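Translate sequence into structure tokens.
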Amino acid sequence: MANLRTKSDTPQARQMSLFDYVQKLEAERRKVTEGSLNVKERLRAALNAAIKQCNLSRHQIAGEMSHLIGADITRTQIDSWTAESKELNRIPAEYLPAFCRATGSIEPMRIIAEAAGAFAMPGPDAIRSEVQRLREQARKINSELRKREMFIAEMETKLQ
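Result follows.
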């Protein structure tokens, strides 16, 4: 007998929707075990990857960060934040936004945000998300307005 595939057995039917994927990520994120929020190595790797993908040298990144922060950042500091052997020298959290701006990578910030249970998105995506949230609020408000208008109309017919 031929092996017939049903519509629900196709790859598309088995593919997880974006909403389901985000829910799965959120459930995994809530599972906090000992050491699960230690992002030291992931952050160091993200810093190194950002530097490699950036068109600027470490010296230029340090200069740009110094300009953005208003304090001196040196290439030596960047080297110490990214070196595997340097256990005690980590990038200060207040320097991370300047590093991300200088390198053009939000990956280090995304790692920190996800560990805290949040999502980090580039500007346009964040604005799209805000627009969607406002549309949902508007639909909710319009629904409430319709309910009240129907209630007013119902009350007026009863009074006549």
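Note: The mean pLDDT is 82.
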